[in-house]
Amino acid sequence: xxxxxxxxxxxxxxxxxxxxxxxxxxxxxxxxxxxxxxxxxxxxxxxxxxxxxxxxxxxxxxxxxxxxxxxxxxxxxxxxxxxxxxxxxxxxxxxxxxxxxxxxxxxxxxxxxxxxxxxxxxxxxxxxxxxxxxxxxxxxxxxxxxxxxxxxxxxxxxxxxxxxxxxxxxxxxxxxxxxxxxxxxxxxxxxxxxxxxxxxxxxxxxxxxxxxxxxxxxxxxxxxxxxxxxxxxxxxxxxxxxxxxxxxxxxxxxxxxxxxxxxxxxxxxxxxxxxxxxxxxxxxxxxxxxxxxxxxxxxxxxxxxxxxxxxxxxxxxxxxxxxxxxxxxxxxxxxxxxxxxxxxxxxxxxxxxxxxxxxxxxxxxxxxxxxxxxxxxxxxxxxxxxxxxxxxxxxxxxxxxxxxxxxxxxxxxxxxxxxxxxxxxxxxxxxxxxxxxxxxxxxxxxxxxxxxxxxxxxxxxxxxxxxxxxxxxxxx
Length: 476
Known about the structure:
alpha+beta; 6-stranded mixed β-sheet
């Protein structure tokens, strides 16, 4: 049996493939803690039966990108594998969620393996119902990981209504009319205005001393070769705390993203001002990914890479708004948070132009990426919020009748989103995800080559303290 070609990779997918192939882009992970009200555990056959439905519903989970020639400038082709062996993709572990940070750090300690006969994803099953879905960025963005768990949760709820037979783990009955979600460039206008193109080209022509980036803090420079190793820290906030943060943000005309971004800027500003070479820095570049699904008419439960980003260089905040300040709702700079939210809303419809710039690299992504080695990092921090948990599809007709107790089923209590690009990526990443329960999971990660551990730990402590201060503002 041979692979079945489906379509050429889009430019953005080609770019992600180059980053992964060169070892610059590691696993994206979306972790969910599953719980059954009746205390049922996730056994192999139940999980495999549910995964079968997920893979058939999302055909990219049975696909991988395959090179088509000797030149890496030629777009690879999406091919569907003749079969998927879940036994090679699903790993039952002895650990539980108490070791989750260590498990994720281990995943990020080495490049993701590339094996021709398996799709680029895997699932780690922990003892307490925690499932770590790890996947290559080529097959999906952060919301795609949420889509996986939404589909799996739906499939598990259906499976719980009937007996499950033994499952071999081999999936091969793929529909003949399978189609992948079209690439971003085919679903929205990503053309680059001439003025934007000139501005981007001029950045490489300006002398170093004239660039705003010269006094921007971005952590340690990019290493001279691919490097691995991330520090991963997970924060969990109850549904009540999450609701409070959302209400607090909305009452100040901003979003949760705006609030967390401003908090990160406050903490970073204070830490940078305490560095021995603090006089050299006046600003900090930060990045916020933007989902483009609303413009590509792609639902949140789909697998795709329909995402762009907004980046800006922010002046360091005054010392009285730094990491040493006691943060509360009363002294928080809500105007900055509101401005960012307004800017993201204004820029979102046009942010696809950033992806459109890839056209002018003419497929020479290897040359572009390798040219970043040894240089200054593009930004200090990325804050990525994949949003609330997608609405789970209603159970099909063979599901519960009116007499069925819907509380006696599977639920997701916690969700964490994490990603790693330790070589070329931002020094710090703050990733946010909502669970079906309404709780909030935050992962704070930093590249060990980009930051001293002490700096990272101080940022973590300051960010936690800031959130605690905001939550302490809850009316009694």
